[in-house]
Design a protein that fits this description.
The complex is a heterotrimer of chains A (about 450), B (about 280) and C (about 325). Chain A is α/β, with parallel strands linked by helices and about 450 residues long. The longest helix of chain A is centred in the C-terminal third of the chain and has 22 residues. The termini of chain A are far apart. Chain B contains 11 helices and 9 strands. With about 325 residues, chain C is mainly α. In chain C, strands 2-3 form a two-stranded antiparallel sheet. In chain C, helix 3 packs across helix 4. The chains are: A alpha/beta (about 450), B alpha+beta (about 280), C mainly alpha (about 325). Chains A and C meet through strand 15, strand 16, helix 9, helix 12 and helix 13 of A and strand 1 and helix 1 of C. Strand 2 of chain B pairs parallel with strand 1 of chain C, so a sheet runs across the interface.
Chain lengths: ~450, ~280, ~325
C-alpha cells in the first residue's frame, strides 16, 4: 500500500478516538431549536419567517444574504418563538431564530426513502442543475470552515479545476464523525463524489483517508472499484500517513497530487484541485438526489471523562447541552467545552450553544488538560520551526507580533499561517505562540486589505 | 626630546587638517533647513510620543512651519504641551490658533468584579486583544472591559492603570495628555476621549453594552438597559439612545446631573462632583 | 457544575518540556561521565562535582538576588548541564578555585548577563573554557595521563593526541605521528599512556550519547554530521597532500571534536534555527576547527571555531529561511 503524506512539518498528537467503534445514534429532538443566522463564511442569512410562523422540517427560514452566503433551513417542525440574539460558537451574542419544536413533520418535497439514487438514472442532472440544487439546499463545507459549496464548484476564470479531492482525513484527535459516516453511508458518499465531479466538470477524483481508519479505506476502495469501473471517471482511494494537519486542504492537495498551493490569495483550485469534506459529499447527495436541504449532520460528542461518548446524527439547532446529557452529563469539576477538536476547536462559555452546519464534534477536555502550563522564556530549540507545516518560523512570527513589527511580520509570510496549532503543541516552554501569531496575522491582513483598497 | 616635538607637530597638523576638512564639508554639503523648525522644536515638549499624529516632535515642528506657510494651524495640536505650548508656537510663527478644549480619556465601563460575575475562566494569553478574539471574555457581557491592561501597556505617560481590586482601568486626570493611544489599544472601543470639563468634572454613561435590557441586566448589575429615562429627563438634548445603549454627547452636556439621579441602574457616572444626596434615586 | 475554561486553540499540548530536554542531554552525557571517572579517577570526580556545584550556585544566586526572577531558573536543569560540559573541557588536575572562576564566567558572564536561558549569544561552557585558557594558560594546557585513579592535583601529565599532531605539522615529520594511538584505541578510549580533557578520551561513550539524543528527538542530525563530515573531508584532503598531517580518522576521534560536535555545537540557544542554517553552521565550524588546529597557535581549535560561529548564528537566522510551503512551482 503506497502511503502518502505532506512535505513539510507536522506533529503526532495522541489519537483518543474513543468513539471509533460507536455506531451512530439518532439524537433526540430538542424542545427548542436555535438557528444562528451566520453558520457559514460570507454574509449572514436574512430571516424570511417571523414570530408565530409555523414551519416544517426542511422549510427555509432564512435566505442567503449575498453572493457568498447560504440559506438556512429548519431542522424541526413547530412554531417560530422569536428572532433574538444568543451566544454562538464565536463566543458572542449573534442574531438567531428560535423555534419551539412540535412533532416531526417534514416538507413533502423531501424524499425520505432509503433507495440509492444514481447519476445514471437521472440524465436531467446537468452540471449547472447540480450546482443550482447544491446552492438552493444551503450546502456548505462540513469540515468546519463552512464555505458555500456551490462557489467552490465554479472556480474563477483564472483557475481550471482538474480533480475533486474528498477530505476524509479526520486528522484531529477525538473526532470520528467522518469515519462513521463512511462506514455507514459509503454508497451515498460515492454518488455524492460523482455529483461533485460532474458539477465541477472533471473526471478525476481522490478520497484521502488516514491509515488509522483501515476499515474505511478497505470498504471505499472496494466500492470505488465496483462503481467506477468502466465509467468515464477515475477515482482513487489514497491512504495517508497519520499525521496532523493532514486534513488541512493545502496539506491534503500536497499529499494526494504532489502540488503545493502557493501563498494566499492562492487557493487549491489554482493548482487544479477542488477539496470537499466527506460530510459535504454526503450532504450533496442528499440535496441533489433526495431534495433534502442541509439541516442535520454527523457529530461526535466525546471526552475522556464523559460517561458514554458517542457519534450522533443530530438536527442542527439542537443545543449542545442535550447531546451532553445523552452522553451522561458534563463531568464534575472544571472543564473546557470545545466546538470541534482539541487542535482547532473553539472553547465555549455556555452549554446552550447550538449545533451548526460546521460543528463536527463536541469535545470536553477535563482536569489538567483543560488548563495551560505557565510559559517559560523561549529556549530557541527550533522545534516549532520543524513542526510548522507551512515552512514558517513560529518563534519569530510570535515575537514580531508581540513587539508589533508588522512590516517584518508580513515579510516573513505571516499570512501563510493556517493556524493549525502545531507550533504551540510542540513548544517545550509552553509559549502561547499561536495566540500571538493569530493577532499578527489578523493585523497584517488588515494592513494588506487597506493597502489594496487605497490603490 | 626631538621625537616629542615631532609627535606634537604631526598630531597638531593632522588635527588642523581634519578641522579644515570638516569645516569645508559642513559648509559645502549643508542642507538648508528652515531655522524656524529648530526654534519650534525647542518649544515642543520633546517627548516624541506621537500624540500629535506626526513622527516625533521634529515631525510636528516641520508640520507646524508648513502649516504656518499655508496660512493656518488648524488641526495641529500637541496634546502633551497643551494650549500653553500651542500658544507659544503660534506667537513664534506669527499665527493665531483656535481655542481647543482640554480632553481626557474616559473608560466607559463600570463592570467591576463586584458588579459583573465571572461565568468562565480564561486560560490563554493575558492580553485584551487575545481575550477579545477568544470570545466574550470571562463574563456574560461581550462588550465590557476585559481588564488585561492593553491600555495600560499602550500609555506612555503612566496615566492609566488597571485597578487590581475592581479589574477596570482608572485614568489619572493630571497625567493624561489625551494622546489617544489607549483608545486605539482597546479592542472594544470602551475608552473615549471626552471633554475634561471645568474642575475636571464630567458626566458619562459608564456602559457600552448593546444587548437588550434583560440580557444586559443578567450580565452586569450596573449595565445600561436602554430604558430611555435619561433621554426623557435631559433638557439639553445631550442624550441619545441607540441599540439599547444611552450615549451622552460631551459637547452638549451641561453637567446638571439630572440623568444621574434618574438612571435606575446607576449606569451614568459623574466624576469629581461634591457628593449629592441620592435619596430620591435610591427610592 | 464546575466552571467552563476558555482559551484560543490549540487546546492540547505535547509531552515535551524544557526540563525533559535538559535532563535528556544530561542523561546522554552519563556514559561519558562514567568513562571519565574510570580513566581519571578522583581528579575527575572533584572537577565535575565542583564545576556542577559552582554553576548551579551561581545561577541560583544571580536568578534570586540580582535578576529577582519569580521562578528560579536553576530548576530547568540548564545550569547542571553547563557545569557538566564545562567540566568535560577541563584537565582533571585543575585546582578548585580556578574551576569556580570558570563557572562564574560561564554562568555569570556568558549566560545571565544576557538575560538567562534563551538569550545568550555564546555557548556558556565554551566561554568559561576560553576565559580559563586565556587567564591560566599553563594549568589549562597540561593534561593528566589516564589511569591515575587516586590522584588529583599531583597527577602526572603527558602528551595528548592533538599535541602530537601539532608537533608533526611543526616539524614536517610524518613519523612523529607513529606515537598516536590507533584509531580503534581512540574510538574505545583504550590508550594506556594517553592524556586529555575529561570529556575527550572516549569517542564511543559520546556516540552512545548522540544516539540517545537522536532517539529522544532532543537534537537533529544536521549539526553533528555536518561538523564531523567536514572535518573528515578537509583533514583527509590535507593528509593526502602531505602525510605530516594526521589521517582523518585520528583527527575526528581526537581532542574535543566529538564532544564539541555532539554536545557543544548543538546547544539550542546558540545554534541556528533552521536545518539549512545548521548545515552551514556545521560546515563552517568543521572548516575553522581544522584551520585552527593545523595553523593556529593552539593544538585544539574546536572551542574557538564554535564560539566564532556562535557570533554568526543571528546572521544565519536572518538570512537563511526554511523552504516555504508553496514555493515549489506546481508540477504537472
Amino acid at each position: 500500500m503506497n502511503i502518502r503524506t505532506f512535505s513539510i512539518g507536522g506533529i503526532h498528537p495522541e489519537e483518543n478516538k474513543l468513539t471509533h467503534e460507536a455506531v451512530t445514534q439518532v439524537a433526540a429532538l430538542p424542545k427548542q431549536a436555535i438557528f444562528p443566522l451566520s453558520q457559514h463564511i460570507g454574509a449572514p442569512a436574512k430571516p424570511v419567517v417571523q414570530k408565530g410562523d409555523k414551519v416544517k422540517v426542511g422549510t427555509m427560514i432564512a435566505e442567503a444574504g449575498g453572493f457568498v452566503s447560504a440559506p438556512i433551513f429548519s431542522s424541526v417542525s413547530g412554531t417560530v418563538f422569536k428572532i433574538d440574539t444568543a451566544i454562538d460558537a464565536t463566543g458572542y451574542r449573534k442574531p438567531v431564530i428560535i423555534i419551539n419544536v412540535e412533532g416531526d413533520e417534514w416538507e413533502e418535497t423531501i424524499d425520505r426513502s432509503d433507495k440509492l439514487e444514481t447519476v445514471e438514472a437521472h440524465p436531467e442532472l446537468t452540471p449547472e442543475e447540480i450546482v443550482t440544487r447544491i446552492k438552493n439546499a444551503g450546502v456548505v463545507g462540513m469540515g468546519g470552515a463552512c464555505f458555500p459549496t456551490f462557489i467552490k464548484l465554479t472556480p474563477p476564470p483564472t483557475a481550471k479545476a482538474e480533480c475533486v479531492i474528498i477530505n476524509a482525513v479526520e486528522c484531529e484527535p477525538y473526532i470520528t464523525a467522518d469515519f462513521r459516516l463512511m462506514m455507514e453511508h459509503a454508497d451515498e458518499i460515492l454518488v455524492g463524489l460523482e455529483l461533485l465531479m460532474k458539477g465541477a466538470k472533471v473526471t478525476t477524483g481522490y478520497i484521502g483517508i488516514e491509515t488509522n481508519k483501515m476499515p474505511a479505506i478497505e470498504l471505499l476502495t472496494q466500492k470505488c472499484a465496483e462503481k467506477f469501473a468502466g465509467s468515464p471517471y477515475t477515482v482513487e482511494v489514497v491512504p495517508l500517513k497519520q499525521r496532523y494537519p493532514q486534513g488541512g486542504e493545502k496539506q491534503l492537495v500536497d499529499a494526494v497530487i504532489h502540488r503545493q498551493v502557493p501563498a494566499p490569495p492562492a487557493i487549491p483550485v489554482n493548482v487544479g484541485a477542488i477539496v470537499q469534506n466527506v460530510g459535504t459529499a454526503f450532504a450533496v447527495y442528499e440535496a441533489v438526489m433526495k431534495h433534502k436541504p442541509l439541516f442535520e449532520r454527523y457529530t461526535t460528542v466525546t471526552g475522556k471523562r464523559l460517561k458514554n461518548p458517542g457519534n450522533f446524527l443530530v438536527r442542527m439547532g439542537t443545543p449542545m447541552q442535550d447531546l451532553i446529557e445523552a452522553c451522561g452529563g458534563m463531568p464534575e469539576g472544571d472543564n473546557k467545552l470545545l466546538a470541534g477538536g482539541p487542535m482547532m476547536g473553539k472553547a465555549l462559555t455556555s452549554t446552550e450553544v447550538p449545533i451548526c452546519k460546521g460543528t463536527n464534534s463536541v469535545t470536553i477536555i477535563s482536569d489538567d488538560e483543560a488548563r495551560r502550563k505557565e510559559p517559560q522564556p523561549c529556549i530557541r530549540c527550533a522545534k516549532c520551526v520543524g513542526a510548522c507545516p507551512m515552512g514558517l518560523e513560529p518563534y519569530l512570527l510570535a515575537k514580531l507580533s508581540e513587539v508589533k513589527n508588522w512590516e517584518r511580520a508580513e515579510h516573513e509570510d505571516i499570512v501563510s499561517c493556517i493556524e493549525c496549532g502545531s507550533c504551540q503543541f510542540t513548544c517545550p516552554a509552553h509559549r502561547p505562540l499561536l495566540d500571538n501569531i493569530r493577532q499578527g496575522k489578523a493585523t497584517v491582513m488588515g494592513i494588506i486589505r487597506s493597502r489594496a483598497a487605497k490603490k | 626630546m626631538d621625537f616629542i616635538l615631532i609627535a606634537v607637530i604631526v598630531l597638531g597638523a593632522i588635527g588642523l587638517i581634519a578641522a579644515i576638512v570638516l569645516f569645508a564639508a559642513s559648509k559645502k554639503f549643508a542642507v538648508y533647513e528652515d531655522p524656524r523648525i529648530a526654534q519650534v522644536s525647542e518649544l515642543l515638549p520633546g517627548a516624541n510620543c506621537g500624540g500629535c499624529g506626526f513622527p516625533g516632535c521634529s515631525g510636528m515642528a516641520d508640520a507646524l512651519v508648513k502649516g504656518a506657510d499655508a496660512g493656518s494651524l488648524d488641526g495641529l495640536l500637541c496634546p502633551v504641551g497643551g494650549a500653553e505650548t500651542m500658544g507659544k508656537v503660534a506667537d513664534l510663527l506669527g499665527m493665531a490658533i483656535a481655542n481647543t478644549e482640554p480632553m481626557v480619556a474616559v473608560v466607559r465601563c463600570n463592570g467591576t468584579c463586584e458588579h459583573r460575575p465571572r461565568i468562565a475562566e480564561y486560560a490563554g494569553l493575558r492580553t485584551c486583544a487575545a481575550m477579545h478574539a477568544c470570545g466574550a471574555g470571562e463574563t456574560a457581557c461581550g462588550f465590557g472591559c476585559l481588564g488585561c491592561g492593553d491600555c495600560e501597556a499602550a500609555c506612555q505617560f503612566d496615566a492609566i492603570k488597571v485597578n487590581p481590586e475592581t479589574g477596570i482601568p482608572e485614568v489619572d486626570d493630571d497625567k493624561c495628555t489625551s494622546c489617544g493611544a489607549c483608545v486605539k489599544a482597546c479592542p472594544r472601543n470602551i475608552i473615549e476621549l471626552r471633554k475634561k470639563g471645568p474642575k475636571s468634572r464630567r458626566v458619562f454613561v459608564s456602559c457600552v453594552n448593546k444587548d437588550k435590557g434583560p440580557v444586559a441586566m443578567k450580565a452586569c448589575a450596573v449595565s445600561c438597559i436602554g430604558c430611555g429615562k435619561c433621554e426623557k429627563e435631559c433638557k439639553f438634548g445631550a442624550i441619545t439612545i441607540e441599540n439599547n445603549l444611552a450615549y451622552i454627547d460631551h459637547q452638549k452636556c451641561r453637567l446638571c446631573r439630572k440623568c444621574v439621579s434618574v438612571c435606575p441602574k446607576h449606569a451614568i457616572v459623574d466624576v469629581n462632583f461634591p457628593v449629592l444626596d441620592r435619596k430620591e434615586a435610591q427610592a | 457544575m464546575g466552571k467552563l475554561i476558555v482559551s484560543l486553540s490549540p487546546h492540547a499540548h505535547g509531552t515535551d518540556t524544557v526540563e525533559r530536554n535538559m535532563y535528556g542531554v544530561i542523561i546522554a552525557l552519563m556514559p561519558a561521565l562514567l568513562v571519565s571517572f574510570y580513566f581519571f579517577g578522583l581528579g575527575s570526580v572533584i572537577v565535575t562535582a565542583t564545576s556542577v556545584a559552582a554553576c548551579v550556585f551561581f545561577e541560583w544566586a544571580i536568578s534570586k538576588y540580582i535578576l529577582k526572577q519569580a521562578r528560579n531558573t536553576v530548576l530547568d536543569g540548564s545550569a547542571v548541564l553547563t557545569g557538566l560540559l564545562l567540566a568535560f573541557n577541563l584537565p582533571s588536575n585543575l585546582p578548585i578555585w580556578i574551576i569556580i572562576i570558570g563557572a562564574l564566567f560561564a554562568i555569570g558572564v556568558a549566560k545571565m548577563t544576557f538575560g538567562g536561558l534563551g538569550n545568550n549569544l555564546f555557548n556558556p561552557a565554551l566561554v568559561g573554557r576560553a576565559a580559563l585558557l586565556v587567564a591560566f594558560p599553563a594549568q589549562m594546557t597540561t593534561w593528566p595521563k589516564v589511569g591515575q585513579l587516586g590522584s588529583y592535583l599531583d597527577a602526572e601529565t603527558g602528551a595528548t593526541p592533538l599535541s602530537i599532531m601539532k608537533e608533526a605539522i611543526k616539524s614536517g615529520d610524518a613519523s612523529v605521528l607513529d606515537q598516536l594511538p590507533s584509531s580503534l584505541d581512540l574510538f574505545l578510549g583504550n590508550h594506556p599512556d594517553g592524556a586529555g580533557a575529561m570529556g575527550e578520551i572516549c569517542a564511543i561513550a559520546l556516540l552512545i550519547g548522540l544516539a540517545y539524543m537522536l532517539w529522544k528527538k532532543i537534537i537533529t542530525w544536521h549539526i553533528p554530521v555536518s561538523i564531523i563530515a567536514t572535518v573528515f573531508i578537509f583533514a583527509g584532503l590535507l593528509h593526502l597532500a602531505n602525510p605530516a598531517y594526521a589521517d582523518p580518522f585520528s583527527v575526528i576521534l581526537s581532542g574535543g571534536l566529538m564532544l564539541g560536535a555532539i554536545f557543544m555545537a548543538t546547544d539550542y540557544v546558540t545554534s541556528p534555527m533552521t536545518a539549512k542554517g545548521q548545515l552551514i553552521y556545521g560546515v563552517a565550524i568543521g572548516f575553522l576547527t581544522v584551520v585552527i588546529r593545523n595553523w593556529g597557535a593552539y593544538p585544539e581549535g574546536m572551542s574557538f571555531a564554535i564560539l566564532i560561529m556562535n557570533a554568526f548564528t543571528p546572521l544565519i537566522n536572518n538570512y537563511v529561511k526554511p523552504k516555504r510551503f508553496g514555493e515549489v512551482p506546481a508540477k504537472s
